[in-house]
Amino acid sequence: MIMKTTEADTRIRVAHDLAVSVAGALREDLEQQERVTLVLSGGSTPKPFMQALSRMELPWSRVDITLADERWVPTDHEDSNDRFVRTHMLINAAAEARFQPLVNDEATPEAGAEEVGQRLAALTWPASVVVLGMGGDGHTASLFPDSEQLADGLESEAMVIAAHAPSVGQPRISLTRERLMRSRRRYLHLNGGDKKAVLARAMSGSDCLELPIRAFLDAPLALYWAP
Ligand SMILES: O=C1O[C@H](COP(=O)(O)O)[C@@H](O)[C@H](O)[C@H]1O
Questions:
Q1: N or C: which end of the chain has fewer CB within 10 A?
Q2: Taxonomically, which superkingdom (predicted)?
Q3: What's the CATH class of domain 10-117+149-184?
């Protein structure tokens, strides 16, 4: 369920509002525990959010950052979420944070998933914050409606799954729904009327295989949206 909706008239403003909320949540948890885990999404939407968050004052050396999903491409590839995080998040004050990538040197996500899962298992769970995005087809992380691995990603108790979808070219690796839900707070960051309409459609139905974002609407989710 959408517990709280924060809207702003510009994408920069909503990105800043989200960064303030995430920083506050991390600070709160860092008062209680030594390390915290922050799970971020790739795609184009999070860039101003990451840049704003990177400037927030926090004990960043105690923050572990990882991703909700990744393309199985070299980390210098222009589509790499790893590269995106290093460019837009691990800068300014947040350069002190530790980053845990979702890729390794294996040729495929199937071959690499076990090692990635072991590394992620060593982080602090539940994660303090998961920031999700959503595509126009209702996918979130790399849980795509046209993926043969979707049902597994929604039901498996594994840390990660290898994912392939005809709608996207590159093989992917994705945290499962179970792992993304293993978090104290979840935020959904969207821009544009089209995505708002997709979310409204998701909220009025129940088939998670049609719109995978539905699988995250049965628990509190805070929406951050700008036109
Ligand atoms: O492929 C992906 O798409 C979604 C949304 O991306 P955006 O470019 O529309 O912001 C993203 O949440 C997901 O992590 C990413 O891998």
A1: N
A2: Bacteria
A3: alpha beta
